[in-house]
Amino acid sequence: MRDQAPFAVAGLWRAKEDKNSGTLTHSFTQLTINADGHPVMDHFHRPNQEKRSLVIVPEADYDDWLDCRDPELARAYLNLYPAKLMVAEPAPKLMKA
């Protein structure tokens, strides 16, 4: 974030108990959306490949996202984060030994 404020990414998780062993396992996914044409996220994939972005949840919306049980309301979070609030720079080039 340009202002270095904390942020989180939207995700989904579930716990599932194996019927045979009783072992509890957890799975999760991070939600992504198309980012073609986004001034920042457009640089994170090779040319001619679909651009993807994680769904960024601002700190002020953490509780609303975490407490959301309405799929239609949850879809309202699936937006690209404003580029003017982000900053990115190329990774440093590795030195060859």
Automatic annotation (TrEMBL):
It comes from Janthinobacterium psychrotolerans. GO terms for molecular function: single-stranded DNA binding. Coiled coil: none annotated. Signal peptide: none annotated. SUPFAM superfamilies: BB1717-like. Gene3D superfamilies: SOS response associated peptidase-like (3.90.1680.10). It comes from the Bacteria. GO terms for biological process: protein-DNA covalent cross-linking repair. Pfam families: SRAP. InterPro entries: SRAP (IPR003738), SRAP-like (IPR036590). This is SOS response associated peptidase (SRAP).
